[in-house]
Amino acid sequence: MPELPTTARGIATRRRILDAAAVEFAQVGLAGARMDRILDAAEGNKARLYAYFGSKEGLFDAVISDRVDTSTDTVPFDVDDLPGWAVGLYDQNLRHPELARLIAWTRLERSPTGRWFDSTRHEHKLTAITQAQAAGRLRAGDPTDLLVLLISMASAWSPASSVYTATLDEPAADHERRRTLLRESVARAVAPETGEPLTF
Fold first, then answer.
1. Is 199 inside a domain boundary?
2. Are 60 and 81 part of one and the same domain?
3. Total Cβ atoms within 10 A of residue 96
4. Structure confidence at residue 117 (pLDDT)
5. For residue 106, which of 31, 4, 181 has the smallest C-alpha distance?
6. Which pTM does this prediction carry?
7. Share of the chain above pLDDT 90, in %
8. How are the residues of the chain apportioned to helix, strand and coil, as percentages rounded to the nearest 5?
9. Is position 195 within any domain?
10. Judgement on whether residues 41 and 94 belong to the same structural domain of the protein
11. Do residue 51 and residue 89 come from a single domain?
């Protein structure tokens, strides 16, 4: 069982390893990553790396979890503004494309099936969606399916896309056009089946 650091120095070392590993894994994936490059970039040592993460696979899992947590904390979920939340994810993918790349590598190298995100991290979102559906504010259906759809829509221009990858150096008007399309599309997708479409 990997150990958690208990000192400020240990926490800082673990953070440097996670950050260096995120860059390495995002660029070359799990199979292509080299622990010596990660250690050189993190200015760490092999003993600490394996004590904290156990293995290269354990480090990869920790990086994915860390980046998902960071994204979750950066883009707060608001069930009453799902279009705004989706746009926030679009912007997060622009600023930090490594998470989408890491997810793409996970898909390529591990071929996951079924739900492969940590449900405990998303439980409050699923609960909020269920409550909003019961109140008639969102379309009916499986909350997980709805959440997966919204994340996929927000990631349509991310490095996980099979069609187009947006970057920060593109014209601002291009990003605004996509945000508008995303916001309007999500509003329609989550609107109740009866009555007027939701406005946000």
1. no
2. no
3. 16
4. 57
5. 31
6. 0.80
7. 65
8. 70, 0, 30
9. no
10. no
11. no
Closest CA to 166 of 101, 90, 73: 90
Q: Are residues 22 and 53 in contact, defined by beta-carbon separation less than 8 angstroms?
A: no
Is there a single domain that holds both residue 63 and residue 80? no
Domain that holds residue 59: 1-67
pLDDT in tens, 99-123: 888 988 888 888 777 665 555 667 8
* H-helix or E-strand spanning residue 110: helix 98-110
**Cα dihedral sign for 136, 139, 142, 147?**
negative
- Helix crossing, 119-134 with 56-74: angle to 10°? 30
- Residues 25 and 81 grouped into a single domain: no
Tell me, yes or no, whether 136 lies in a domain.
yes
Pair (42, 19) in one structural domain: yes
Which single residue is written with the structure tokens 């679009």? 90
Residue position matching structure tokens 């707060």: 76
pLDDT, tens digit (0-9, with 9 covering 90-100), for 42-52: 998 899 899 99
In the 8-state DSSP scheme, what is residue 168? T
* Closest to 182 measured CA to CA, from 150, 138, 147: 150
Highest mean pLDDT among 115-124, 155-164, 174-183: 174-183
Q: Which residue's entry shows tokens 């991310």?
A: 158
Judge if 92 and 57 occupy the same domain: no
pLDDT given for residue 78 in this prediction: 95
d(CA 33, CA 6): 27
The per-residue pLDDT for range 91-104, each reduced to its tens digit, is: 999 998 888 889 88
